[in-house]
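Input.
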Amino acid sequence: MNVGIVEAMNHQEGHLDIGGGQKLYYQDWLPIEPPKAVLQIVHGYAEHGGRYQNVVEKIVPSGYAVYVNDLYGHGKSEGPRGYVRSYRDLISTTLRMNSLIHEKEGTDIPVFMLGHSLGAMIGPWYAAQYQETLDGLILSGCGVRYPDMTQTKRILVGLLSKFSHAKVMTAPFPADRLSHDQEVVKAYENDPMVFAGKFTLGMLEAMRKMANGVSKAAKKVTLPVLIQKGGDDEIISGAQELFVAFQGSKDKTLKVYEGFKHEVYNETEERRKQVLEDLQDWLDAHI
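Output.
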């Protein structure tokens, strides 16, 4: 991170009590002056909240606070890697993080949620139930289906998960599907907290259920919505379908970046510059 940018913000770490004696790791980046709004990030599968430095460096010096927790079984949080009992747990822990944000920053501050990939599946489900806790929803790497999860695989996961939620499955995951930036790809491949290519049946079932119902959830959302999608994203498809499903939102924007891959905020420097500017412009227009 640039030294000048570090001087323009404060970084803190903590642990979020989610009940049952379990805790999730979280971190926040705060501007020097009181923040004008908060961005709550919900990260993707097999990664962690520390991979969003490009977003942090862009918006925190402009007066925004950023909060992100590592999902259960991810990053520095507790739990078996990639395991979840139910998709409902992903939503409830996201609510707990949102509640902590309001406890720390006050009930009147605008809070926007940015969900990426798995987080972009969680986002519409969360907003459909708790949109009074948000002022807007931003999704990247989003859609309504996982192309790698064929109909046969979905049926098999649904059956097997009833008997062994914690069983680990493996599948190849080429990291170059994420970005054109080879430094990003190498960092992802060498990150000890990333476990791409490994899935528990419980998590696969949660992802299957959320994908099956994400359009229905989106229909209940009345918040402002921004979708930022890579035109060459091979990991999740159907962003246009999801955009249309947000029929209750009178303020929605879809930006497709042609030639970009799955992680639009982690694309090459020249590519991501426009994406990050679009993100900040949208935030500035909604506070």
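The chain has a mean pLDDT of 93.
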